[in-house]
Specification:
The chain folds into 2 domains: 2-250, no CATH class; 251-299. It contains 10 helices and 13 strands. The protein has helices spanning 14-23, 28-36, 68-77, 82-103, 115-131, 160-169, 187-201, 252-267, 271-280, 285-298; strands spanning 2-7, 40-49, 52-60, 135-138, 141-142, 144-145, 147-150, 153-156, 173-174, 182-183, 213-214, 222-230, 241-248. Strands 11-4-1-13-12 form a 5-stranded mixed sheet. A two-stranded antiparallel ribbon has the order 2-3. A two-stranded parallel sheet has the order 5-9. Strand 2 (40-49) and strand 3 form a beta hairpin.
Amino acid sequence: MKILLFDPFNGIAGDMIIGALIAAGADSEAVRSAMSSVVAEPDFKSVVKHGITAVKVETNAERTHRNLDDVIEIVLRSSASKEVKDMAVRVFHRINAGETAVHGTVTHFHEVGADDAIADVIGACTAFLSINPDAVAVRPINLGCGYIHGEHGTMPVPGPATAEILKKSGLETFMDTDTETGELCTPTGAALISEFVAYRSGADSETAGETAAAMPCMPHGKIIASGYGAGTKDLPRSANVLRAMILESDSREENFVDILETNAERTHRNLDDVIEIVLRSSASKEVKDMAVRVFHRIN
């Protein structure tokens, strides 16, 4: 069982996801090719932030405001695979739902409608699908601290759209203690990680993390790859990077049950809720039956 673990200990954004996944072994040429149909010559280079070597993704793109239909049209015109396009469209629907919940009517996207943001979503989805994990786990997401200064004025971290996206995800978050960090989790990063979890958990398009393992530690397994993706911030006391790790578990059943036990204990679900999560998961029928028996024993 291949588990993809995201560790957003110092933030998460679209470019950071691409960098971390490439560093962990994603197909960089497939990512570059997919992104190149939206932006010219995306660049992946190695940088060092506070002693940590990470992959930095850079694009030279226009800053253009677009509405959802325009963004989806660009996604569908890209050279990415159909599976990547479908996933990218779902990501932008998540962002749009977050913006609409906050602002009522969204006439156009701001930063997330720019060419580089569209390329980041396509690139991140391509990288994720090239790794093709059996499961996705996410450690608590560092949202940052302080304020965001944007077109809607000054807002506290997390931004309203980011908070709305994460509210539906079921993923755990925390606030940084350093007020100088600003925003560390972007709407694009929140929407991408929510989609990845939903894709592998079997959740529907409106929910993401209810069957995910959002855990303080790592799931059981052998680390077979790891990498860091660099963000745009140069923080005074820590590295603005995202870590991705790929773990191989020898026992699908043991690992699956352990993840669910961790999740159930943390969220204080009752037995019926836990069993529902088991049955909704993408595990085999044999694994589901075993997990149900385990939780009946615990109860």
